[in-house]
Amino acid sequence: MATSRQVLSLYKQLLEKAYKFDNYNFREYAKRKIHDSFKEHKGLSGQEQINSLYNSGIDSLAQLQRQTSISQMYTFEKLVVEPLDKHHH
Amino acid sequence: MFRLAVRSARVQMARAPVAAAIVRAPVRFYAVAPITKEEVTSRAFEALKTVAALQESKLTLEANFQKDLGLDSLDTVEALVALEEEFDLEIPDKISDEIKTVGEAVDYIYEEERKL
């Protein structure tokens, strides 16, 4: 059974992972996707539905882990929309 | 004989700076100046502005994330992650549960930055 605390913790972990993408487009997409998916099901109350979504979130976290690792193996040019003074990424 | 003269001159030259170095007061060079609270605050505000749901006009140190800035629990997490990324640190769940206002977050970050 997934509690709201666990859901928030999953949300945090997903976002932290998403920031690890070096590529601007991947990073922004991942952040947007995570944000929108959680917001979409914000009002959900059925425990079964919450559990199944929570589990798919866990799978997505594993997927993000793999994809960000791969992403970090390549170098990306900064896009013009990205601030240059950013101290990391 | 000429070589000898050169050698003795060298020895003297080598000694002179050592004596000078002892007299000179030590100067300390810092790689980075310690961060100020104002700097933490302004960087935190900039980072918080990237959170879409946040009402920028109400952004102050006293503002409560949920009551004043119009954020829900998800947005609050998002704001804290944005701060984590800006300052390159991790806020443990235990502490992030207790952070309710922007000022509390800035205080925590300031304390953490000073430890570095």
What does this structure look like?
The complex is a heterodimer of chains A (89) and B (116). With 89 residues, chain A is mostly helical. Chain A has helices at 4-18, 24-40, 47-71. Chain A has one domain (4-71). The longest helix of chain A has 25 residues, at 47-71. Chain A is elongated and about 45 Å long. By secondary structure, chain B is an all-alpha fold. The chains are: A mainly alpha (89), B mainly alpha (116). Chains A and B meet through helix 1 and helix 2 of A and helix 3 of B.
Features:
heterodimer, A: 89 residues, mainly alpha, 3 helices, 64% helix, elongated, B: 116 residues, Non-ribosomal Peptide Synthetase Peptidyl Carrier Protein, Chain A, 5 helices, 59% helix
The appropriate CATH architecture of the domain at 37-115 in chain B is Orthogonal Bundle
Cα-based radius of gyration of chain A, to the nearest Å? 15 Å
Major β-sheet profile of chain B: none
Low-confidence stretches of chain B: none
- Greatest interface and its participating residue counts: A-B, 14 and 14 residues
In whole angstroms, how far apart are the ends of chain B? Answer: 59 Å
Number of separate helices of chain A: 3
Overall number of strands of chain A: 0
Percent of residues in beta strands of chain A:
under 5%
In the predicted model, the low-confidence regions of chain A spanning at least 5 consecutive residues are none
Shape of chain A: elongated
Residue-averaged pLDDT of chain A: 90
- Multimerization status: heterodimer
Hey, roughly how much beta strand do the residues of chain B contain? under 5%
CATH superfamily of the domain at 37-115 in chain B: ACP-like
Mean pLDDT of chain B: 82
What's the structural blueprint in terms of helices and strands?
The complex is a heterodimer of chains A (89) and B (116).
Chain A: H1 4-18, H2 24-40, H3 47-71
Helix pairs in contact in A: 1-2, 1-3
Chain B: H1 2-23, H2 37-48, H3 73-87, H4 93-98, H5 102-115
Helix pairs in contact in B: 2-3, 2-5
